[in-house]
Amino acid sequence: MLVPFKLRTPVTMALTLWLSTSALAATPPLPGKELWLFGGGERICSSVEPEYCEASQQQAAQAYFAAQQAQTGKSYRCDKTSLQLLQQLPHWPVAGDSETRRVSILRALRSQQDQIISKAELDTFSTQHRLSDDEYSVIEDSCEVRPQRPDGSTARMAVYWPGTYAVTQQLFQSFVTSAQQRRQLRNPQTPATQKPRLLLITASSYNPYEWVDYYQQLFQAAGAEVDWLPLEPALSQQPQPWNCNKIEAGRLKHSGQLRRAERYPELAAQQQKLCADPNAMAELIERADAVFINGGDQSLTLRALTGPDGKWLALTERLLQRVRFDAVPLGGSSAGNAVQSGRPLGDIAMISGGRSAHALQFGALAHDIDAPLCRLNQSCGKLLADEQLTYRPQGGLQLFSLGVADTHFRERNREGRLLTLVQEAKAPAGFGVDEATVLRASFAPDKDGNGQDAALEVLGSGAVWVVDRTSAQGSFNAPDANLTQLKVSRLLPGDRVHWQQSAGTAVKYQGQLSCGVPAATDAAKVDSEAYAPLTQPGLKVRWLFGQDGKVAACQRSDGRWHYLAQPLSLQLNRTQG
Q: Contact at 8 Å (CB) between 376 and 89?
């Protein structure tokens, strides 16, 4: 039916303008960015890690995996094609007399040609022939068998949600719930019962296909619809427009991977489809209510999100805008946590590797990590010790603007490496997250993404260690170093802190520990393992925790301590011995 056109008078136009302006004025401003820093090691019940299933659910989990015809492990068969591929590699991935090693290893593999080999048997072969990690990797890729269901489809990893511990379920459910709540603020007209859409990025893995099914099922069980953004270095490091047919060949150079499209044909086809339609990839970002980045190697994550010139892809720029200004929460585990470090000012670093004892003795090195299996293409840079502390000075995604983020923290004794990096890279603070733990950082709105005002909350089962160097005094680089006036916190689930800091000023702490007001405690009793003296050839380390031998701390029933903004000093003696 046609509706007669009516002339709009100035009065009606003004009324319409007033109504629309009033509606805009009534819309509350969006909250600032929200980041979820998962420490890694989340215990999720799955067909590939059944040991993480709750004991009472083991039998039900096995029945579920069988019904799903799930992948339970890896098997290998080195056929003629596999052996030819290994023979034709441009270089063998070890230094020294590499061609002699190649011949010797291929001869041993040919003796088992076309035989099915289990993971345990491949491990035994590796031990017998003293394979390097790189040699093991190329053999594993070349010979891995695609697990198939009776209908010919690829068998997938399966996640059994009822068998996953409640504390782990709550971490992922809370993240999804926050995404849903923030979507309602952004789009109040959306039905509240509609599931939020989560954008999954698996680019931290050497093999970006391997964990897609796993995370899709995990987040679906937690209450989200899941889209996969199939970026990886073999795609993003090409000049644009991308040549989708070169992805598989590019994996050898950028990720050290072989024959992945053969192993994961369905996911490879999905990636090809999206590669051919960049607008479809852009739409995935536009409709995302949350973003999650998996664990692996944060340097790979960055290469997947930048072009060959080192600048952000247009897709990445839009994703970062949505996180900073559209109230889209971003979470990441392990490498997906560490890669969040930094701010647009470019003065907060991203950690990329290293161990505490080596870091305290030899310091940190700004260094771009080599691509995996770089010896295959003779593209390795400076040879570094495996323990060397390395970092990217300008940070990672430049989202976590309070300081440097670190992971697997207490489990891997990382206090020393984080403190070293924070001090040498002149970051205001460092935040180390334990496994099975999340640091939720809810920022106040800001105009440029450099905000230093955030509400911090700890979830899960572990702790978050925070070192604040905004008032630190002393030298760190001298052979006899003495660093004073640091402040450290160990926060446990239920602890909430409001963190505020302006340029050149000390951090303001508001909030309290879940235990109430902590009592003055003998410092020697608190976190004694973390602050134990260290003596090794060439290095002596002494931590001085508290003031006058006391700290304000309280202890959880399992023995874990928590405390807020307590004094810490560090004495180092480095020698050539």
A: yes
Token output for 227: 């889209």
Distance CA 310, CA 213 (A): 30
pLDDT tens readout for residues 405-418 = 999 999 999 999 99
Which of these, 223, 221, 250, lies nearest to 234 by C-alpha position?
A: 250
Same domain, 396 and 470: yes
**Amino acid, res. 358:** H
Give the domain-ending residue among 145, 173, 202.
145
pLDDT digits (tens, 9 = 90+) for 386-409: 899 999 999 999 999 999 999 999
Could you tell me the two tokens for 560? 């874990």
- Cα distance from N-terminal residue to C-terminal residue, the chain: 92
- Domain of residue 464, residue span: 33-45+164-574
Q: Which residues contact 154 (CB under 8 A, 6 or more apart)?
A: 146, 147, 148, 263, 264, 265, 266
Same domain, 103 and 173: no
Strand partners, 118: 75
Q: Indicate if 91 and 170 belong to the same structural domain.
A: no
In 130-258, at which residue ranges do the beta strands (DSSP E only) sit?
197-201, 225-228
Q: pLDDT tens-digit profile of 40-86?
A: 999 999 999 999 999 999 999 999 999 999 999 999 999 999 999 99
Given a contact cutoff of 8 angstroms between Cβ atoms, the answer to whether 300 and 369 are in contact is no
Question: Does some domain include residue 282?
Answer: yes
Selection from 139, 105, 107, 104 nearest residue 122 by Cα: 139
Buried b (16+ CB within 10 A) or exposed e, 376-414: bbeeeeeeeeeebbbbbebbbbbbbbbbbbbbbbbebbb
Cα within 13 Å of Cα(316), Cβ side: 23
Residues 6+ apart with CB under 8 A from 571: 481, 482, 483, 541, 542, 544
